[in-house]
Write a structure and sequence with these properties.
Elements lengths: L7 E4 L5 H11 L3 E6 L13 E2 L2 E2 H6 L4 E4 L5 H11 L4 E4 L5 H5 L3 H7 L4 E6 L14 H7 L20 H24 L3 E6 H7 L3 H9 L16 E4 L6 E4 L3 H10 L13 H6 L1 H12 L4 H11 L3 E3 L3 H4 L3 H5 L3 E6 L3 E6 L23 H9 L3 H9 L4
């Protein structure tokens, strides 16, 4: 059993930010009851590519979950939610603020039913502030949150980060917030609301861009693949393919100079990192002229033996076959009842005693409706037939 095996989550989320958070909880053993609209389900079920008619996008984010279809516009559907809330630990949703309240199942209402309930909401801009009612998608919050303005080639246009970091970071912070609230509940016996905004999370991960602006007053711009504060920290061409090197301190700098045979380790222009930043253009040319003399594979061997952080720029096909990635079980295969076998990322949190587990593939829409309603609400087959006839499930 996973470390969260005794936790039950009622999951109203769809697309990416919310489902990512509940996937993390499910991977660690929580029981995830995913509430979906009858007939259509999570919006991402309509996102390609497809395997035998099933969305690979959806399947990659909804493993270890059960699907319960429920019409939230029907009073009977809301009654079922209220009864389920009595028995669950966590509710997670990523609707626009106010949507759950309009349905009659907002936090203020549900906490009266279950005072121990952890209610987590992930939205574009959070529950408060002048933007709270604005719609948001990943690209929009990447733009508003500043990360696009510091991403891209030197002198080039601002660039969206490839993975949907606006959604994913919100999902991760949401999972952290939920676990924090659960820990506090163990002491107080009371639930609370977790309010996570995608925009907030983008600001939180701007790293040193905000501190650099605060100190210098200069607006950070895209600088390509180099680090804005550490030199050398970027890819260089070799005889075969580029190699990324990260010389993160002055000790590594001296070793690096010796390995590539350049006698500038103590040169006052380059001997400390601030000077290397100041004389970046001149230094880059010196290093580039040396690294082009060998292949990427030769340099990797040399740098690995000396403890210099380095690596090739892998394409996705190389990542999924990388020996280290495979050794850590970070590419796994799950067998879906309709789609068949599908590869996806594994669990990055490695626990020594109570590890997470990939038990079940993403559910077929509504596959668990009958079983869940029988288990938690003691519904009979006749009850289910009436609900189905009334288009509640």
């Amino acid at each position: 059993m996973g470390p969260l095996h005794d936790i039950i989550v009622l999951d109203f989320t769809r697309v990416l930010a919310g489902p990512y958070a509940t996937m993390v909880l499910g991977d660690l053993g929580a029981e995830i009851i995913k509430i979906e609209q009858p007939g259509s389900g999570d919006d991402s079920r309509a996102y390609g590519p497809y395997l035998n008619g099933e969305s690979a996008y959806f399947m990659s984010l909804n493993r270890n979950k059960q699907s319960l279809t429920l019409n939230l516009k029907a009073s009977e559907g809301i009654d079922i939610i209220n009864k389920l809330v009595e028995q669950v630990d966590i509710v997670v949703e990523n609707f626009r603020p106010g949507t759950m309240e309009k349905l009659g199942i907002g936090f203020d209402k549900l906490k009266q039913i279950n005072p121990r309930l952890i209610y987590a909401s992930t939205s574009g801009y959070g529950q408060t502030g002048p933007y709270s009612q604005r719609p948001a998608y990943d690209g929009v919050v990447q733009a508003l949150g500043g990360i696009m303005s510091i991403t891209g080639q030197l002198g080039g246009q601002p660039t969206r980060v490839g993975p949907s970091v606006g959604d994913i970071t919100a999902g991760l912070f949401c999972a952290i917030g939920i676990l924090t609230a659960l820990h506090e509940r163990n002491q107080s016996g009371k639930g609370q609301m977790v309010d996570v905004a995608m925009l907030d999370c983008q600001v939180a991960i701007l790293e040193n861009a905000i501190s650099r602006y605060g100190v210098t007053g200069e607006i950070p711009k895209p600088v390509g693949n180099r680090h804005p504060s550490i030199v050398p920290f970027e890819p260089f061409d070799t005889q075969t393919s580029p190699i990324m090197v990260a010389v993160g301190n002055d000790r590594l700098w001296k070793t690096f100079c010796s390995l590539i045979n350049i006698d500038i380790a103590e040169d006052p222009r380059f001997n400390i990192n601030p000077k290397r930043n100041e004389n970046y253009v001149e230094l880059r040319s010196i290093i580039a002229n040396k690294l082009i003399e060998k292949t990427s594979e030769e340099w990797q061997t040399i740098f690995d033996e000396a403890g210099i952080p380095n690596g090739p720029i892998n394409t996705v096909d190389k990542v999924v076959h990388n020996e280290q990635v495979l050794a850590r079980d970070m590419i796994v295969e799950m067998d879906h009842p309709i789609a068949g076998k599908m590869s996806m990322p594994g669990i990055p949190i490695k626990l020594s005693r109570t590890p997470g587990e990939l038990k079940d593939p993403a559910p077929v829409l509504g596959a668990d409706t009958d079983a869940l309603l029988k288990k938690y609400l003691r519904f009979s087959d006749a009850d289910l037939e009436i609900l189905r006839k009334n288009q509640v499930i």
